[in-house]
Amino acid sequence: MLKPVLKPVLTLILTSSLINTASAVQLLGDVEVFRLPTAETTMGEVVTRYQALDDGLTQQLSSKKNEVDATQLAARQGHRLWQQAVRDVQSGHVDDRPLYWARLAMLNSLKSTSANFKMADWQNDILMSAVEKASRGFSDIQYADDVQIKIFLTGFDPFFLDKDITQSNPSGLVALALDGFRFDVNGKTAQIETAMVPVR
């Protein structure tokens, strides 16, 4: 459970980071998505590391017959992406970039894949927001009941990619490395939870 004082803080961070997310993805995300072919040519293994999750999203979306099921699928795949990126970094694959590029691939897929019902633009925006929120770790913030010191950290997406398409962001790498980390401070149990914030 989050302490009452922490909940408004996390809500503010989430709101300020993801407000008008769909609009941001539409306006600035297109610029990011346009870099995908160049990135894949330059560092294919990085860009396609989580391709199976993107494939799963598109394959399953075509069978969804209503907005609720489609949104739950988008959120679930986004959450799986975040969890896989955390596991990879914490098991020794020290690279935050696959998460960034896989998220863009998922958002791009949502633009070109139709569910098994007629979706309005605003419904598609909801799916994109679900992927954004979940794949950035905001759906994964959970402190254990025995934790006495709760720490929340944010990392950031890679940027200046027009100068260097292979750019990483150390803050994002640290966020993935420390998510869920527990340690003792003067006899009290501390836990770190993290999330990734867009740079747009």
From TrEMBL:
InterPro entries: Peptidase_C15-like_sf (IPR036440). The keyword Nucleotidyltransferase does not apply. Gene3D superfamilies: Peptidase C15, pyroglutamyl peptidase I-like (3.40.630.20). Keywords: Signal. Residues 1-24 form the signal peptide. This is Peptidase C15. It comes from Shewanella baltica. The lineage of its organism: Bacteria, Pseudomonadati, Pseudomonadota, Gammaproteobacteria, Alteromonadales.
